[in-house]
Specification:
Layout (H helix, E strand, L loop, with lengths): L2 H13 L6 H9 L3 H7 L17 E4 L2 E7 L19 H23 L5 E12 L7 H16 L6 E7 L8 E9 L1
Parallel strand pairs: 3-4
Antiparallel strand pairs: 1-2, 2-5, 3-5
Helix pairs in contact: 4-5
Length: 183
């Protein structure tokens, strides 16, 4: 008779599901409103610029998104151009990388319809058009990374490369690629 209560307790423990169900996870995801976060930061996403050649802005494989390189396109459609260390300061490069982040967020929003579908920013490849002796590429690309973390919090932290280039297309000062995981 003593075995029956122990058996009941074992069955009860094995029948308890400790994993949250899909509805709970969905509610947790929906509790963050990244569109509101952008408004709170005073950021308005621009229209997405069409590809300049024979490629697409974004491809998807399962839940992973690969975003083509984008540059610092301003609201008037022109780009911030020049070499960091000659034509632009490190601080101006940082702001250009931040503008590039806004342009990549626009691509994400256009593709997903809702930034709340972003699970995590996985990888960033930042390229800086710089003079040969400029070595602060990471500080420039921090403009991009800092904004991703400001918008997405811990989900915005990512692996990254920040490299210098002898030139970039149309003399833009930065170009940044992005890999994102979605729900």
């Amino acid at each position: 008779m003593k075995i029956l209560p122990v058996l009941f307790l074992v069955l009860l423990l094995f029948s308890c599901d400790t994993k949250p169900d899909a509805e709970v996870l969905k509610a947790q995801v929906e509790s963050v409103d990244f569109d509101q976060k952008l408004k709170d930061l005073g950021i308005e996403l621009p229209p997405v610029s069409p590809p300049q050649a024979n490629y697409v802005n974004i491809t998807q494989s399962g839940k992973i998104l690969f975003l083509a390189g984008k540059g610092p396109r301003k609201a008037d459609g022109t780009y911030i151009t020049g070499k960091v260390g000659a034509d632009l300061t490190e601080e101006q490069g940082y702001e250009a990388a931040k503008l590039t982040a806004i342009n990549q967020l626009a691509v994400l929003k256009d593709h997903l319809g809702d930034l709340n579908k972003v699970k995590r920013i996985l990888k960033v490849k930042g390229m800086v058009n710089a003079v040969p002796d400029f070595t602060n590429q990471p500080e420039v690309i921090n403009g991009f990374s800092d904004l991703m973390v400001e918008v997405f919090g811990e989900k915005g932290k990512h692996a990254r490369a920040a490299v210098g280039m002898g030139s970039l297309p149309r003399n833009i000062c930065v170009e940044i690629e992005l890999i994102v995981e979605t729900y």
